[in-house]
Write a structure and sequence with these properties.
Helix content: 40-55%
Shape: globular
Largest sheet: 2 strands, parallel
Radius of gyration: 16 Å
Low-confidence stretches: none
Number of helices: 4
Organism: Pseudonocardia aurantiaca
Protein name: Helicase C-terminal domain-containing protein
InterPro entries: P-loop_NTPase, SNF2/RAD54-like_C, SNF2_RAD54_helicase_TF
Keywords: ATP-binding, Hydrolase, Nucleotide-binding
Mean pLDDT: 80
Length: about 110
Amino acid sequence: MQAASVVILTEPQWKPSIEEQAIARAHRMGQVRTVQVHRLLAKDSIAERIREIQQGKRLLFDEFARKSEAKDADRRAVDTSDHRPDVLDDESAPVERRVLATERHRLGLDQ
């Protein structure tokens, strides 16, 4: 696992955090190579339905855990010193695109 730079997700999990943890392990400290994540899905399968459920869970989590009344009440509550990509706050953007943008931002690849 220490030399891994490729993650292959062969079956979707009910809890999105399990897949996120598998990906994060490849993005460990000291990783110098680009990490590739591949997801194997069969068209019109139960795996596609599970992915839809995962996306719903992520959106539900974002709705409750990522909203802040303090942030909405006063823009000074937000640290703007580290510019976030606009797509992270665009709820109309596909979740996959926002997740990828988050990781690229976290790793400093978009600077």
